[in-house]
Amino acid sequence: MTLEKKRILIAKPGLDGHDVGAKVIALALRDAGAEVIYTGLRRSPEQIVRIAVDEDVDMLGLSILSGSHKELATSIIARLREEDAGDIKVFVGGTIPEEDFEALRAEGVSGIFTSEMTIESVIAEVDSQLS
Amino acid sequence: MSTDTPLNRRQISRELTRIANASVRDVLDTIGHSEAPAAFRIGITGPPGGGKSTLINALVKDRLKNRSDTRLAVLAIDPSSPVSGGAILGDRIRMDAIADLPGLYLRSLSSRGARNGLCDNIVDLLTLLETHGFDEVVLETVGVGQSEVAVHEVVDTLVVIVPPDAGDSVQTMKSGILEMADIVVVTKADQPGARRMASDLAAVLRKRGDRDVPVLQTEAEGAGVAALNQAINDHRAWLAANHPHALTRENRRRYHLQALIERQVQDALKAKGDITRGTLTASYDRLLAALRVK
Hints:
The complex is a heterodimer.
Chain A: E1 7-11, H1 20-31, E2 35-38, H2 45-54, E3 59-64, H3 69-82, E4 89-94, H4 101-107, E5 111-114, H5 119-130
Parallel strand pairs in A: 1-2, 1-3, 3-4, 4-5
Helix pairs in contact in A: 2-3
Chain B: H1 9-20, H2 24-31, E1 40-45, H3 52-63, E2 72-78, E3 87-89, E4 104-110, H4 122-131, E5 136-140, H5 151-154, E6 157-162, H6 169-174, H7 177-180, E7 183-186, H8 194-204, E8 215-217, H9 225-242, H10 249-271, H11 280-290
Parallel strand pairs in B: 1-5, 1-6, 2-4, 2-5, 6-7, 7-8
Helix pairs in contact in B: 1-4, 3-9
């Protein structure tokens, strides 16, 4: 139970309606011992930041398949900092092209997960960042 | 004790996390000297999938309508996995309509292994919310069967929901959680069987004290919810008039003391393997000695 008592928010910002990946990750995190909050589809950056703050999560995972990962991650990280919640680690998962990795990291994204990665490696990465 | 200042969400949520993971000693240091007035507590319980979260969504929206100065918190408990100890907390998904209300604070909780429909430190969390000036708290239990009646002891008004398709499970609820209900709600009233369920329930529910237990019907989109809010307010007024002691902090102290002691007993038994050595009397004395909070 490596992630015991860790609180993690899995959020779906933007307009894409596919949450199979988000749910798979949420279940894997639960099986690793975490308390996982799931937002449901199509939340705005404002809503996601409010949920992250109210739930006092250690980590926010954004599942984005629409291609607007840079805009959404940038907006959400900026709002978290405004709310004095810049210490919440932000991860992005979905269809993220490799050429965007550096830009996302420069914006403050702690980890990037793509569909090619195994669940085990995702959990291991979350675990090492949160411990 | 509402104020015009906005909720300090960051501070409230951090304090809740801290106290949720704190030792009994730290709990006492944090809330042990609080003189904050008791918030009005509404419990929502019922079987899994019965529509608790959906009802809270409509209920809170109606409750906060035209009351912009009211501070209301929702605590929603979901079960933890008995295998990993982790949890999926998904009650929020159905609480869309209230997610942006400025006076609302919504927190998802894991039952963390508790089997009574709550979590072991629920009273610590409720008391902490009171120190932040919340007027009302709505508590959603884990989806329960018949025997999880502990919620009755931590709230002022208990709403038990029954979906129309509950079928025979209602028979078992009749001796159990339904006996604790202050108000019964048949959810999903637009589905077949709802009216029949409501009249069946009204026929079997006995009076509680000198008060009839109302049986109401609600729909996801909000039909019947205003009547439910009225019934909740009526029950509160009835309590204040007939059982004023029930609404005081002192009355809640019993359950809180018991919860703290139970946690200490668990901690002591876990930490000291030698407590159970020797005769029953010897181990009992050893346990009592270990309970002294340092």
